[in-house]
Amino acid sequence: MIGGASNTGKSTWGIEIAYRLGIRNIVHTDTLRNTLRATLERRKHPALFLSSYQCWRPYAKTYNPAALARGFHDQSKLVAKAIRAVVQDAEDYGKFTLIEGMHVTPSLLDSLKGKHSYTQVFLLDVSREETLRKRLEDRCESTYLNRSASKYSGVFPEFKTLRERLVRDAKKKSVPVVSNETHEQTLAEIMKHLFDGLDRILKKS
Q1: pTM
Q2: Which residue in 72, 129, 168, 202 has the fewest CB atoms around it within 10 Å?
């Protein structure tokens, strides 16, 4: 599983790692969230129907970090149920599966890990704001996204709050935090965490 805040490279690295390891199943938590929106009521779960950086709105009239943290936690708890089903399916049918997205939240990882399979989790992070802004601009200019970078220019405080929350949770749960600054360094760190984890599992068996 790959977690991380917006524009830290989760999808890009999810695709690359899946290719390198021969993993055919990639599940995005945004897709799970959108599926939940089709089955749950907006009235009962208002935060679910908002973007991650806007999910403070049901709990405050103006933005504040505490309301955002509450809304994001509510989102993540719901998505965690769907992730748990994906993990169970992977266990039942022996599917190698990669799950990536912001809602792979470290504080919920204990309930997401499979009981009879090897599950590795890490968090991608980009600490420099100028790097995040440049990646956002590049992403919005790509042909597959019909979005304007100006739409997000005023919500960097929200992005920062979510990023800091995820990093803090990861460290609290001893989940590796990989700094995604250069391709070579990021690849080396990810592979080291994956194979170190496998080595620990093999030594226990």
Answers
A1: 0.88
A2: 202
